[in-house]
Predict the 3D structure of the following.
Amino acid sequence: MATDRIVVLAGGVGGAKFVRGLRTLARRTSSPAAITVVANTGDDLWLAGLRVTPDLDSLMYALAGVNDDERGWGRAGESLRVSAELTAYGVGWPWFTLGDLDLGTHIARSALLKEGLPLSAVVERLTARWPLGVRLLPATDQEVETHVVTAEGELHFEEWWVRTRAAVPALGFVQHGVETATAAPGVREAIMEADVVLVAPSNPVVSIGTILGIPGIRAALRETSAPVVGVSPVIGGSVVRGMGDVCLTAIGVATDAGAVALHYGARPAAGLLDGWLVDDVDAATVDPLTAAGIAARAVPLWMTDDETTARMAAAALSLARSVRE
């Protein structure tokens, strides 16, 4: 662990919780691991003239210790005066409430982007404010936005997720601009030079799936000598957080820990995974997954606090070491 270079693919609140636990584990060593987090940018959007990056911000705020733990997103100690004014002017989405402190982040980001800085450089500028203990990278500098295909047309993922609460049936997901995108500077290099790559328990379809869709990233994961170990976002047939089950259903994948692992696929069969952690309640999936070429273990996966999540991260690293050996 002390010399490991760890790359984590992550998105949103679940990814942020996992990375905080991994950082807690790393800080206990005399030579802490170098952790690079590659974040989903498919949820990003322009709103009221501002570039909003939900997953990057969730990770940044959580690692900085300034996130709102009660709501699970945004900044702690928020006020909503500016959002109320925007609504009064009929600007933006009234159901997509941005706090005043959060808006400060979006204004700063948008100003730097309009000065010509790429998103990766902007993230570096913004994260320099806090000692995060990890390097945070966007999956790409290009604008790749996830849209949901419905019978009534396409909706931006955030509109479908927040306004409709995923109640409108999804027929599929489209990442606009993904074909011409490239991995952000440092992403492929981090993966290729890693000792371990971890796939956080984030939404497999619109978070991890979007990262994997960026040209060059999936290839790097197949080429790296590092073991790739994922953590199931499904426990006992239910998603840990959010409405990821609706996303899985839309692409024909069962809400099941084993099914998600097989969706990612085994690396020996041109898939993604060398190893997969499932919760104890899903222990019956371990043998079938191992037979399919994915080394699996069952351990407690509920991320109730940083300490329990650190133990989960330790189990993931232990599995990675056994795969590597």
The mean pLDDT is 95. The domain at 5-42+178-324 is CATH 3.40.50.10680 (Rossmann fold). The first helix runs from residue 12 to 26. Residues 155 and 297 are 38 Å apart (CA to CA).
